[in-house]
Design brief:
heterodimer; A: about 550 residues; 15 helices; about 65% helix; B: about 200 residues; mainly alpha; 7 helices; elongated; disordered N terminus
């Protein structure tokens, strides 16, 4: 398979001056470089969001703590949420989609390379805008001030009167700008998948990662846009004196909630579906079996996408909707559990009877399966509106969605890092550091987020600055904070692994995992043009066909 | 083993949709969602203004300008079709499209001028003003963007740079223009029929 690469004369690969290299990276339109730029920028923002999380946890470590002021605390949880969703999770998933989708469908680049670069720089600019608010977002006393009204920016908190200065403006503009970037990327992913597949790559043969990213991109078109529209309305309110969310002029604060959550809930699936995609590629390879129930997986993904568009108001049970709305959103929310359950069974079915290899990527995948299941179960609990009335806005909810985002999305992402890092850099990540990373992170995660459910049930509200002693929250909060630091340590090991392995890692070769999808048929890292000749495929596992000409998959299609 | 022989060749011919059309369809879906949110806000706030003026007092139905915009959909469609057969006809129809779109935009401007200076309705007057100017303004913004793109094509057309090989691109632009027209049907119904 090494023949799939054109040998470049030595003179052309000589080391260039770093200014030249930097210029190349800044002006690149190559989907692989943009993918890496997305991922690296997301890791930078992950560090920022992580530090904010640690500050929150230090503040809540014991009662009556005043590690930071209440104002700073508000900024921390607002910035933490906004950063992690918009400038870590979205870009890192777009980065993987950018990198992998063209390779997996045998294309040489995305459908619109320049739009791709434009979209990346828009979302990056959005992140910079958000963080510039720390110095530029003049608050009450003219000092720099970051947004501090929560990542939902509920009306009327986002209005001029309650959010003076420019902190909320930076928040709005950052989300608007990065939202346009997301829409551009989504359009690009859809056009790439529909229009650039190599010969033979029928929709029934696309790798599941490609399928799920197609669904994700479709959801971005429908889910990010309501947020953009709502941000425009907020800007009109703040700058032109509009009354969209101004209750004194007849406007409605609840309308903002609806608009925000029409974005907010599908967004969860925008983030988790690409993680399902990683699982659907990684689990089969390390179980040495093809994916179980391919068509059902596709159907379940589409089904999740469809249903998730009509569940948003389960975030709003406590605002007092009528009983019909409560029943409807309880029902639809619970229905999402069915296709999701199908998926979990399919992954287990894939592992069942396989020769499982417990590489780090597989360990993270198994962690994902276990934790995502629990996250789903607390989700079903919260979906029941009477239960939600009791526990909404408590630490139980915080524990639930961190179980989804950290236990699900982040674990799947780590698996993806260990699985595709060899393709992106040509070097293997260290398995030894990887195991340390996995076990420490697993322990830290469970210490933090298993325990976090309990203060929620005991009545600890979310976003609280500090609390009275003697409510039974102290020890629990202390354990939660310890877990957070163990997770931070694990992430440091991960980053060290990324850096050390880049220079000293074992050479990966084209196909270190003996995998079956097209990206492993080209060199690691792939050349700028990806494939020297356009591949053609005859089954879902083109590399299996190639390696086993005596028993190709195509025979059974 | 070389790459060309490594994968079995598919027996059938391989055809995929045009990326321009797919991308424009994607953009239209995204834009539809944005407009939906603004339309929902308009409908939700109908009759909820705490002060005047109300839509029934100040709005006049812009039938003539609506006819202009809707017929421009026909002219751009015919223009895209005639590009391959009759270049002069293509240019005439393109200019006609721009003229009709421009006329519509002029109509919106005229209405806004009347509302602001004669009726005292601005975006900050009441909820009606806020929702009206933002919904109609969002649409007018899309008309403007379309007119800029159409004018670019017209300029290149007069220089003689729009060939038959560009017809796919003209069709993509035509899709956008049809979308802008379709949105106007919705906005018109909501603002001038239901809203009054």
């Amino acid at each position: 398979m090494s023949s799939n690469v054109i040998t470049v004369p030595v003179g052309q690969t000589e080391a260039r001056p770093w200014v030249d290299k930097l210029h190349q990276w800044l002006t690149t339109v190559d989907h692989k470089r943009l993918g890496i730029l997305y991922i690296v920028s997301a890791l930078l923002f992950l560090a920022a969001g992580g530090v904010e999380a640690l500050i929150i946890r230090i503040q809540l470590m014991h009662s009556h703590n005043n590690f930071v002021s209440p104002e700073v605390f508000n900024q921390m949880f607002t910035m933490h949420g906004t950063t992690m969703i918009f400038f870590v999770a979205m870009p890192v998933l777009f980065g993987f989609a950018n990198y992998l989708v063209p390779l997996m469908i045998g294309a040489s680049d995305m459908a619109f390379p320049r739009l791709n670069a434009f979209s990346f720089w828009l979302s990056f600019l959005g992140g910079l805008l958000l963080y510039f608010s720390f110095v530029g977002g003049s608050g009450l006393y003219g000092a720099g001030s970051a947004p501090d009204v929560g990542w939902w920016s509920y009306a009327p908190l986002g209005a001029r009167a309650f959010s003076p200065g420019h902190s909320s403006d930076y928040w709005t503009l950052a989300l608007l700008v990065s939202g346009f970037g997301s829409i551009g990327t989504a359009i690009n992913i859809i056009a790439t998948i529909l229009c650039l597949r190599c010969p033979g790559m029928k929709s029934s043969r696309m790798p599941l990662l490609v399928w799920m990213n197609l669904v994700m991109a479709g959801m971005v078109l429908l889910a990010i846009t309501p947020l953009s529209a709502a941000q425009v309305m907020l800007l009109i309110d703040r700058y032109l004196g509009g009354h969209f969310f101004d209750t004194q002029a007849g406007g409605s604060a609840v309308l903002w909630m609806h608009f925000f959550w029409i974005f907010g809930h599908p967004e969860v699936y925008v983030l988790i579906i690409p993680c399902f995609a990683f699982m659907s590629e990684i689990i089969p390879v390390f179980s040495r079996k093809p994916i179980f129930g391919y068509p059902v997986m596709v159907a379940a993904t589409v089904c999740i996408a469809f249903v998730s568009m009509s569940v948003w108001a389960h975030h709003m049970f406590t605002i007092g909707m009528n009983s019909y709305a409560n029943s409807f959103f309880t029902l639809t929310t619970m229905v999402v559990g069915i296709p999701t359950g199908i998926k979990i069974f399919n992954w287990i079915g894939t592992m069942w009877g396989g020769r499982i290899q417990f590489k780090t990527a597989m360990l993270f995948s198994i962690g994902f399966l276990f934790q995502f299941l629990i996250a789903g179960l607390t989700g079903i609990m919260m979906a029941a509106s009477p239960f939600d009335w009791q526990l909404s806005l408590s630490y139980f909810v915080v524990a639930h969605f961190h179980y989804v985002i950290v236990g699900g999305i982040l674990f799947a992402l780590f698996a993806a890092f260990y699985y595709w890092y060899p393709k992106m850099t040509g070097r293997m990540l260290s398995e030894r550091l990887g195991k340390w990373h996995f076990w420490l992170f697993l322990i830290g995660f469970h210490l933090t987020f298993d325990v976090m459910h309990i203060p929620g049930i005991l009545g600890m509200p979310r976003r609280i600055y500090t609390y009275e002693p003697g409510r039974g929250w102290d020890t629990l909060n202390f354990i939660i904070s310890i877990g957070a630091f163990i997770q931070a340590l694990a992430i440091l090991i991960f980053v060290a692994n990324l850096i050390i392995s880049y220079f000293k890692g074992e050479r990966a070769g084209n196909d270190p995992w003996d995998a079956w999808t097209l990206e492993w048929s080209t060199s690691s890292p792939p050349p700028a043009y990806n494939f020297a000749t356009v591949p053609t495929v005859a089954s879902r596992r083109p590399l299996w066909d190639l390696k086993h000409p005596e028993d190709p998959d195509s025979r059974y299609e | 083993m070389t790459a060309t022989t490594s994968f079995p060749n598919p027996a059938t011919e391989w055809r995929l949709p045009s990326r321009g059309k797919v991308a424009m369809a994607g953009l239209i879906i995204a834009e539809s969602a944005i407009f939906t949110i603004f339309v929902v806000a308009y409908l939700f706030y109908m009759g909820k203004s705490t002060t005047g003026p109300t839509p029934s007092e100040v709005l006049e139905t812009p039938i003539f300008y609506t006819i202009c915009l809707l017929s421009s959909s026909l002219t751009i469609h015919l223009a895209a079709k005639s590009l391959q057969r009759d270049y002069r006809l293509f240019l005439v129809l393109l200019v006609l499209t721009i003229a009709l779109g421009g006329l519509f935009l002029f109509g919106t401007g005229q209405e806004w001028h009347r509302l602001v200076y004669e009726r005292g309705l601005t975006i900050s007057t009441n909820l009606f003003g806020t929702t009206y100017y933002s919904l109609v303004g969002l649409h007018a913004f899309h008309v403007t963007a379309g007119l800029i793109m159409l004018s670019l094509v017209a300029i290149f057309g007069f220089i003689g740079r729009v060939g038959v090989d560009q017809s796919a691109r003209i069709e993509v632009l035509s899709m956008y223009w049809h979308f802008v027209d379709a949105v106007w049907v919705v906005v018109f119904t909501v603002v001038y029929v239901l809203g009054r």
